[in-house]
Write a structure and sequence with these properties.
The protein is about 40% helix and about 15% strand. The chain is an alpha/beta fold.
Amino acid sequence: MEYKTIFEPFRIKMVEPISVTTESQRKTFLENAHFNPFLLKSDQVLIDFLTDSGTSAMSQNQWAGMMAGDESYAGARSWLRFEKVVHDLTGMPYILPTHQGRAAERILYSHLGGKGRIFISNTHFDTTRANIEFSGSTAIDIPIPEAKDFSVLHPFKGNMDVEKLKSLIKEHGAENIAGVILTVTNNSGGGQPVSMANAKEIAKICKQNQILFILDMCRIAENAYFIHARENGYTDKSFRQIAQEMCSLADACMMSAKKDGLVNMGGFLSLKNKKLADDCTQLLIITEGYATYGGLSGRDMEAIAIGLEEVFDPAYLEYRIRSTTYLGEALFKKGVPMIYPVGGHAVYVDAKGFYPDIPVEQYPGQALVCALYLSGGIRCVEVGSVMFGKYNEQGKLIPAPMELVRLAIPRRVYTQSHIDYVIEVFEEVIKNKSSAKGLKITHEPLFLRHFTAQFEQV
């Protein structure tokens, strides 16, 4: 029998206090943070859904493993354990440890990129796009059409549009395409999963055209869960076996272990090609650290090695996906427009649908993240024209394809009572929709402006 109550497959051994604030206090905090939740202090936040990256609660085995960390500069025992686990998962012979995923992105994409080079993805995330564009390359997104239709039920909305991929290769020439990146799950596309069939098609096209196929696998376990549940031929395979099969299709894998590695810091780049691995290793040593530790301490590598085993536990994955779905389903029933079905690590609200009277030039997503913080101390992030918008030559905003707000749920951190509180806060925000105000940017950097941009209400 499957019970209605979502059962956390762990017990709480240590607690971290949450600072409870009043709406009056939060109003002052938000104004001082220039209406940007990234600029809030953590003790001003009640429920932190800003990101699921590096915010996981580690297990007793991970903490115990950290005590056994070997901090030798070269050839540490912790490195050998880390290397063995990553090799087993990816099947690739060359493993480069990095301090987090964006370091792996910088190493690989700065080496492959440059002016005139093109990267194609189901959807580039913010740091991926920034590293690519910083090198002078162009980043192109080609999600399937169903990804942008919130009313359509599709089991794998994270898929890449295969026909568009073929068309882009023909248009730009295979020799000008530096890499095809498949992100699983598709974070900027609503945390939606990618099917194995789609990955196989992309791998075949890349092989035919001698284009590097790169798997961004930071949520590979969550993606494997959806393949197991929704794709024919995979119900008898373990989650780890599904992940291993997907990795075997790629020429390179990169991971921010701060997601499905269940750690607070760490990542890696794994490669099949020795020449590419040698070139990237030189960049690793120059910018991160020696090849057997990268930007990581021995204790970090121990925690990652254990986390990459724990994350495939069926009880954990069942709880993880059910908990995220619980929040999404509850909001959906209350009429909150969102990407549906619910993804793996987050609920993505359609801010343009939630605030139809706020024009995109006044950033409805940013208005919603401010409203959620003001009403209940919930911190989340805009994934729309603040994060991905650009300007034309006249300085007019070119909006992002979607105006979303992401509620990213940290792993093994919050209980169901916390999630029920979030649902109550949404009820309050829904009641006050008519009084919401748009925002304008008063300060912004050239790249990744959402991290440090400042706003004021219109």
